[in-house]
């Protein structure tokens, strides 16, 4: 019914040819068992286990490197330097994606000031194809314009879980606190060989997104949605999430800039504004937030040309700048900004 496939994560000594490594008398020890069996997991699952390490020697120890032999295995340590008696954690992570009976290694090399040592720990899993968890899409990217149109609702996730169990497993959703998540069970489909497919839809909505204080124009909102299926073992899949500012226009150059050569008679800079093909937005007004700037807008077939002239400034070593604030209509009226700046150098 089920084909078990094994993978082992092992922290082992360096291969022959690595000089000055002492495999015996290691002052760094694992508290508890150095072996962990994660049991059966779904193909594509993420398995994590944390070991506790302690320096049982009389000298400080310094971890020199962690090296993995496969991109499906990674390791992270809490502290690279430990005083005598101090402890830290060592996390092992396996991504069970298409790993068929492979033996993966991570070498942890450390020194006590006199000798180099290694430490061994292991994590093993059995990958079961009958516990496969599939999520579509595997990444979610949205912008503020689409969220306004959808009242804050993000693209829905289609979730399928395959199992030989007669009863439906429990599925949990872990999402950032600024997201509302609701999982709806749609149906159960029988496949040949007594394999069942549980189908779900995951609905995500930004929690009061229009009032959210995060300025996505400065930095996108990023997070992770985790799906956990509790069968014989818990299998998890992560879905990266990013919400960014909607872009209606592309500005060239990205910043209008004047140099000291323009000081006597500040030149007018022309900024080409191209409307993106999927946008129906139009610029209604443009104005400089600082006084003395002259701004004129000219409409073209592909967007606009903005003519910008800075004020006549006299003085040495003077930097000046302003933001151009634009009113943009896309059904409702929003505001976007553009930076214009310059610097007169002393002695010009």
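-> sequence recovered:
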């Amino acid at each position: 019914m089920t084909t078990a496939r094994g993978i082992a994560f092992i922290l082992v000594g360096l291969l022959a040819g690595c000089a000055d490594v002492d495999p015996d008398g290691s002052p760094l020890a694992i508290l508890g068992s150095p072996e962990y069996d994660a049991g059966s997991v779904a193909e594509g699952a993420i398995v994590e286990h944390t070991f506790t390490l302690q320096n049982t020697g009389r000298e400080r120890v310094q971890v020199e490197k962690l090296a993995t032999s496969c991109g499906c295995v990674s390791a992270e340590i809490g502290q690279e330097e430990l005083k005598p008696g101090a402890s830290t954690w060592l996390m092992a992570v396996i991504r069970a994606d298409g790993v068929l009976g492979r033996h993966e290694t991570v070498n942890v090399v450390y020194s006590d000031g006199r000798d180099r040592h290694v430490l061994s720990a292991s994590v093993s899993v059995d990958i079961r194809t009958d516990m496969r968890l599939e999520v579509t899409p595997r990444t979610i990217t949205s912008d503020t314009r689409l969220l306004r149109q959808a009242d804050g609702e993000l693209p829905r996730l289609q979730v399928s879980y395959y199992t030989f169990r007669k009863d439906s497993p429990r599925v949990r959703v872990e999402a950032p606190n600024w997201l509302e998540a609701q999982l709806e069970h749609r149906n159960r489909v029988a496949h040949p060989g007594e394999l069942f497919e549980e189908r779900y839809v995951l609905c995500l909505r930004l929690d009061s997104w229009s009032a959210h204080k995060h300025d996505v124009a400065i930095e996108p909102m990023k997070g992770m949605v985790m799906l956990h299926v509790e069968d014989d073992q818990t299998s998890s899949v992560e879905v990266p999430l990013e919400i960014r500012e909607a872009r209606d226009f592309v500005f060239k150059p990205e910043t209008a800039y004047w140099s000291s050569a323009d000081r006597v008679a500040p030149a007018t800079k022309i900024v080409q504004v191209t409307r993106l093909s999927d946008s129906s937005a139009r610029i209604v007004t443009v104005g400089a937030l600082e006084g003395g700037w002259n701004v004129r807008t000219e409409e073209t077939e592909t967007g606009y040309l903005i003519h910008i002239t800075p004020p006549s400034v006299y003085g040495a070593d003077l930097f000046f700048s302003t933001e151009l604030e634009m009113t943009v209509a896309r059904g409702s009226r929003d505001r976007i900004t553009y930076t214009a700046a310059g610097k007169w150098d002393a002695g010009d």
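Residues 198 and 215 are 38 Å apart (CA to CA).
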